[in-house]
Amino acid sequence: MNAWLGNYNGRILRCGSVDREIDQRMDMSALGASIGPLWNATTAIALSSGLVGSIIIWWRCPDARKTLRNTLALLVITLVAATITRGSESEGHLANAGLIHGFLVLVLGATVIRLIGLFFFRVILAVFRVHPPSILEEIVVVIAYFAWAMLQVGSAGVSLGEILTTSAIATAVLAFAMQDTLGNILGGLALQWDHSLKVGDWVRIGDVEGKIVDIKWRAISIETRNWETVIVPNGMMMQNQFMVLGERTGEPRKWRRWVWFSVDYSATPDRVIDLAEGAVRQADIEAVEREPAPSCVLMEIDGCVARYALRYWLSNLANDDPTDSKVRQHVYAALNRESVRLAMPKQHLYLTNRDETYVEQKRGEKLEHRLAAISTVDLFRSLAPDELNMLAHKMDYRPYAQGDMIFKQGDSDHRMYVIASGKAGIYVERDGEEDFFAFSLGAGEVLGESGLMTGEARLATAKAETAIECYVLGKTALAEVLLQRAEIVEEITETLARRNTALQNARAKASGQDGGPEKAHNVRELVEKVRNFIGLDHH
After folding, report:
1. Is pLDDT at 14 greater than 50 in this prediction?
2. In sequence order, which residues have a C-beta less than 8 Å from that of residue 292 and are 6 or more positions away?
3. What pLDDT, on a 0 to 100 scale, did the predictor assign at position 273?
4. Lower Cβ count inside 10 Å, N or C end of the chain?
5. CA–CA separation, 422 vs 462, rounded Å?
6. Beta partners for residue 211, in sequence order
7. d(CA 218, CA 188)
8. Can you list the domains of the chain with their CATH numbers?
């Protein structure tokens, strides 16, 4: 009996072992049956193509690597999960396995669409040098997602007509509820499509100034120089004014900067402008463009200072303040080398005892400047020191800026101008044409002497070629000297005749005629004109 039970138990154990082995074989067979439809030659080709495409995207598009990495990770997880759920569905081990498997197939298709979108927009279009807005890529991919989802739902037996009708109603409700979001999406698409903005542009929106680093569905990301990232909704960009910095059609990117400084009145504007412009032009400052050249302008004359702006063109918009600082350093050094004082940030109150000594000192300083100006004039080389001193007392100081009109041809003006510094140009008018340049006069020379000594209308036009400081002498003052020294009239007239000869020759050249006879006639009659106008014939 015991022996029979032992044999019976042995057969039971052997039968149990055989049953477990059969179950295991059945499980493996089911798993193989589930894997078979998923892993075949078509799947292998698709995965190989996806792997090659992913490698190309990774190599050619560094900015898409994060998206690619996440998409591939989701693809692998979805494939493994789909394989497991397929086997569980065939054996009935997992409730709702078919529904879960369908969802995973939906996700799997979405990842494939994403990979295809990356390869098409980032690789294929780039080969043909087509660069559509990045937001267009996202919109196309989303439309493909929607189409894939509709196909999957349709394959499950749901009518596509019902789906589209329901989707249209739902879309209308969502559109009404999400007006701002849709406005941001359409705004972003419009901004990129008409090339109003692109990644890399420097923009100013209100108080925000920075570089665009991304343009997405909802907003634009702007990185400022303060290491901040500002998110601006696309709808706000469409509704408000913004500035794109440093952009001009057909020109390289550069942005004009203004560096302000103030100087007291001890230096003339032309001198300050020359020093400031020369300091920046001659310096090799990084990010400062040589063309257009830096320029300095006098912007304001305040109660106690003259305010200037040095304007230059910046090529690296991210380096604005450091470059401004270097420009200021060069301007500061150039002004200090020439003893030009920057304006003090305070007011000065001068208390002066204006007694006779002070007044006499100021008169003496002014007289010295005038004497220095007329002592080098050829017209007065025959005058004695006391006669020069008499003329100096009668002269008035007058400055002219570059381009100023000193007098015009045909004017009646019985004054002479003695140039102390600067240069003036003499021009002869031509009918219907631009004035003809005759010659230039500099420091120590005179303008308008013919009108002063003969009373004739101006024979030419005088303009300041540079900033000019001059002294004006009237007919009365000169007559006082000549009435006492009538013998020097002819000497002065000879100098005047040479000037008139040069002027007449220039006029003849401007009109294409020979000025010889007219020149001789003027020389003969000039002495009598001077004597009659000054009044020497009546004494």
Report:
1. no
2. 313
3. 94
4. N
5. 13
6. 202, 223
7. 7
8. 40-177 (no CATH), 199-245 (2.30.30.60), 255-337 (3.30.70.100), 367-538 (2.60.120.10)
